[in-house]
From TrEMBL:
Keywords (A to Z) from UniProt: Hydrolase
NCBIfam families named among the record's database cross-references: Cof-subfamily, HAD-SF-IIB
GO molecular function: magnesium ion binding; phosphatase activity
Source superkingdom: Bacteria
Record keyword NADP present: no
Residues passing through the membrane, by range: none
Protein name, UniProt field: Cof-like hydrolase
GO cellular component entries: cytosol
PANTHER family linked to this entry: HAD SUPERFAMILY HYDROLASE-LIKE, TYPE 3, PHOSPHOSERINE PHOSPHATASE
UniProt organism field: Limosilactobacillus coleohominis 101-4-CHN
InterPro entries: Cof, HAD-like_sf, HAD-SF_hydro_IIB, HAD_sf
Length: 266
């Protein structure tokens, strides 16, 4: 058993951190999570409904974070119960959509509310995302006709275009939280929304910062890793993440989280 016996919670990113590259959980990870004295919380850019299957597999009962922090929820009796929510204002979302359509019409634009994933039209990138996430989108709706989005997601596979769009939007919309979540996904949330929000939620409910660890691999995990008591990166994390953590563990393909948690099994 490790010396970090004071740890009570591990907040983990999902894709390329907890999950293998094909988007699945393996048995060693499931076993370690279920047996460890450390409680696991998920913190993902995903929408909550694409997380439920994994929450059930792992037997998680505590708070989880979706859409980079726009939604904190728990699964109870098979249903998503919202604990905290912070959506983007409709006006800001509208301005962003107009700007993108004018300057970058080739970019795949999609938005997510607490209940649905919306896409203007079906594209190859959207089909790929459907296959990976297992979530069926609502197609053809207009942004102004839906609930205020918790998250806007841009899918940009060209790295140069991705960097250009990210830089432009960060300069133009400084009152939004804009992060790369890896694999060509640019996630956009309301100001102040990030994965570190789950740490504050736990603190508000009596957990000490020193009792919370966090693990991730990409840019959108940094706000989490910067506020936990013990920060971890998987070996496959981007260099920017690995240089800012206290410990680098094995990669997602090498079951790094399972190996870390196994040290907290009596």
């Amino acid at each position: 058993m490790r010396n970090e016996s004071m740890l009570k919670y591990l907040i983990s990113d999902m894709d390329h951190t907890l999950l293998h590259n094909d988007g699945r959980l393996d048995l060693p990870t499931i076993s370690a999570v279920r047996q460890s004295s450390i409680k696991l919380c998920l913190a993902s850019a995903r929408n909550p409904y694409s997380m439920v299957e994994f929450i059930n597999q792992l037997g998680l009962t505590g708070p989880q974070l979706a859409m980079n922090g726009a939604l904190i929820f728990q699964v109870y009796a098979g249903k998503v119960q919202v604990l905290r929510e912070c959506a983007i204002s409709r006006e800001l979302a509208r301005q962003l959509a107009i700007e993108l359509q004018s300057l970058y019409p080739e970019v795949d634009f999609t938005w997510i509310t607490r209940d649905h994933w919306y896409i203007p039209k079906m594209t190859p990138a959207m089909r790929e995302e459907m296959k990976y996430s297992g979530v069926q989108p609502v197609i053809g709706r207009q942004l102004q006709d839906t609930a205020a989005p918790d998250q806007i997601v841009l899918i940009i596979k060209d790295q140069q275009l991705f960097s250009e769009v990210q830089h432009h939007l960060q300069q133009r919309f400084s009152d939004l939280s804009i992060h790369s979540s890896g694999d060509g996904y640019l996630t956009i949330n309301a100001a102040g929304v990030n994965k570190g929000n789950l740490v504050q939620y736990l603190i508000d409910h009596g957990i000490q910062r020193s009792e919370i660890a966090g693990v991730g691999d990409d840019q959108n995990d940094l706000p989490l890793l910067q506020v936990v008591g013990h920060s971890l990166a998987v070996a496959n994390a981007i260099p920017e993440v690995k240089t800012q953590v206290t410990e680098v563990i094995n990669s997602n393909e090498e079951d790094g989280i399972a190996q870390f948690l196994s040290q907290f099994i009596d």
